[in-house]
Amino acid sequence: MDGRTGAMRPTFSAMTGGRVRLRTLSNLRWLAIAGQSAALFLVHYALGYALPIVYCAAAIAASAMLNSVLALRYPAAHRLSNREATIYLGFDVLQLAVLLYLTGGIANPFALMFVAPVVIGAATLNLGNTLILAFIAFLSVSTIAIMQWPLPWAPGEQLYLPQLYLAGIWTALVIGIGFTSVYAWRIASESARMSAGLAATQLALSREHRLAALGALATAAAHELGTPLGTIAVVARELERALPENSPEVEDVRLLRAQAERCRAIIARLADPQSTMIEATSRLPLGALLDDIAAPYRGEDVAINVTVTPPAENDPVPQVWRAPELLHGLGNIIENAADFAASEVRVKAHWDAASLYIDVEDDGPGFAPEIFDALGEPYVTSRPGHHALEETDLGPRDTLEHEGMGLGFFIAKVLLEQTGGMVKAINPSGGGARVAVRWARGVIDGEVPPAPSEME
Description:
Elements: E1 20-21, H1 22-46, H2 53-73, E2 79-80, H3 82-102, H4 115-124, H5 127-146, H6 163-242, H7 250-271, E3 283-285, H8 286-294, E4 303-309, E5 319-321, H9 324-340, E6 344-351, E7 355-362, H10 396-399, H11 408-418, E8 422-426, E9 433-440
Parallel strand pairs: 4-6
Antiparallel strand pairs: 1-2, 3-5, 6-7, 7-9, 8-9
């Protein structure tokens, strides 16, 4: 529900901390060096075409030398920053430009290899550095299109390509570099964005499971501590009776007995099945469950009203399991609705023989039409005063501690879908926004709790 007044599709540049290892690029460069050396040997010695073999070998040797120096300077697992990776790949572009300059420029069929380092950069760098790398490739292609040594050909012959054809090759290279780099960068950024969002979801869900585990631990502790505290209370009572009324220790014994009784009362509440998260209250009537979820988000400025409408007068209210995914997912949706509501959030529940429905409505401005396609994706937000992730170096754990990062609806949707629900966001005709969730009967209100595999 983040982003009512506009949409922002982040580019997710939190990968600036180093997303590619030096070993990966080094192995790719060794592969390029082997290919370039094989091509020179084949053309010069096997086919007999005259090449400036010394200059070409020097360009290849420079690349091999740089690889060797980097291998000695850094460990293989060293991760390159965006700036370092851009310089690394920029060198590869320039080295390739030198080789092509010596062997015919863009008339050389191997000019297509300009695409390789740019695509690698687009898949690993942020948008700014990808554009820098593409610009270096563009300048290199344009330079060798104007200035180059002749294309190696048979002795005594010279191959001349029409200028129009060369212009076509230049255009194809520029368009190919631009298209493939944008395409690779877009796919990589979407994948990274989704991975970070899913990591944040897993952290949120892990926190809910830990809270549920604390409830079980409290019940176990209450059971174990009940007997020794009862013994302490009995002994304190006997000591109080045995001591003279005017004894200075009487008040201390009375205090000890009172505190023991207080501890027993606290433990009795913890052990009460009606007040714990397990046993009896692992299932709650639908209305009570929604009231429990909405309680933390009620405030003086926004009213949260829960309405449960049965299909018939005597139809029993569904008993819903308190799954952490359900609690956290609906909680996120209600919280977002309260953030954007003018004065009221309406939580409506109804059911029939086939399905169970929960709608969360608010009287706020509603969803902006342009963000409907982006709803459910991570880091889609237009909350004022907050920035999308491409402007920060926050990771998934950090985003859980910062509101307005565009993760609320994404996390809610993922968690509710894990419970078997279907989530849909719409703008009702009367104004405001509505998030509707539907489950098949028996999924969250069955006689047995959902198996862990159904919730993951």
